[in-house]
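Budget justification aside, the reviewers requested a transparent look at the raw inputs and outputs of the sequence design task funded under Objective 1. We therefore reproduce one unedited record. The lines immediately below are the structure tokens for a 295-residue chain.
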């Protein structure tokens, strides 16, 4: 067991003891920015957020309940008093889904259409979308990159933030998922289910649509036929909007700085992080690029 896993398990034990769950056979699912564990005997998923994210964790739980009330298929938070404070970190508890796989771009389109139609809830303080949350911290943590590359990323960050303040008008603002991609949709026997509400906020719906568009234009992981179906189902072709390049640039920067931050603690991802920087800086010719997903 690594030091990070042992630390995470310690928080898990404290939280589960407080909430009354059996932690004896807990299994790590994913230990990244947020740490995810499975409690097989209780069929519960435990999510350990970062220190200082209490309000965000509480908002995720509230959003899950709100989506359920509005009949948007979504993973459900348990009806217990939560988050639980353990090791000065907010911990939340969720119903385990039945066997599933990642959703399709078709599923993403259908769920986003349902979500974006909802009125902004008055009972939850969602806040405005921030496309650049944690980017500065990620650049600072990216110690495998050269100083020159980090300075370029900082300049790109500043440039995009300035453009965001002057972004062109588009579709009316609404509740947005904030990180809408196939990895945050589970394809279950009962249909697609929306996951991960950490970035739910109020903002331009185009932000949610850009994630799938990038899979065609930037990473090449979606075919033209799949993307055409996505646009037809949702009813908008976001790449034709004049603000697309701005939002796409912000998304690409997020994807790159996440990889760079992750590579700082995981040497096996150094090459991928550098490759993404090289792509953004024009050192790699021709889109789409073949970026490997960080797991």
């Amino acid at each position: 067991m690594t030091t990070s896993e042992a630390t995470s398990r310690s928080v898990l034990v404290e939280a589960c003891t407080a909430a009354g769950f059996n932690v004896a056979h807990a299994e790590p699912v994913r230990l990244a920015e947020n740490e995810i564990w499975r409690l097989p005997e209780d069929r519960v998923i435990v999510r350990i957020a970062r220190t200082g994210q209490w309000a965000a964790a509480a908002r995720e739980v509230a959003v899950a309940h709100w989506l359920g009330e509005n009949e948007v298929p979504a993973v459900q938070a348990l009806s217990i008093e939560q988050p639980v404070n353990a090791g000065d970190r907010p911990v939340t508890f969720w119903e385990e889904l039945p066997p599933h796989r990642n959703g399709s771009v078709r599923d993403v389109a259908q769920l986003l259409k349902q979500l974006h139609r909802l009125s902004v809830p008055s009972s939850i303080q969602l806040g405005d979308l921030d496309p650049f949350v944690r980017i500065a911290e990620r650049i600072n943590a990216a110690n495998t990159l050269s100083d020159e590359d980090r300075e370029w990323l900082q300049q790109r960050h500043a440039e995009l933030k300035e453009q965001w303040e002057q972004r062109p008008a588009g579709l009316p603002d609404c509740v947005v998922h904030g990180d809408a991609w196939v990895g945050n949709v589970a394809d279950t026997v009962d249909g697609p289910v929306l996951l991960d509400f950490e970035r739910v906020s109020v903002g331009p719906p185009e932000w949610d649509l850009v994630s799938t568009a990038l899979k065609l234009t930037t990473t090449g992981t979606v075919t033209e036929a799949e993307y055409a179906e996505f646009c037809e189902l949702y009813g908008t072709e976001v790449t034709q909007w004049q603000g697309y390049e701005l939002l796409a640039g912000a998304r690409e920067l997020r994807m790159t700085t996440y990889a760079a931050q992750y590579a700082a603690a995981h040497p096996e991802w150094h090459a991928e992080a550098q490759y993404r920087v090289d792509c953004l800086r024009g050192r790699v010719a021709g889109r789409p690029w073949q970026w490997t997903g960080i797991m």
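Strands lie at 27-31, 35-39, 44-48, 84-86, 89-95, 101-102, 174-176, 185-188, 191-194, 201-203. The two ends are 18 Å apart (CA to CA). Computational costs for records of this kind are itemized in the attached budget.
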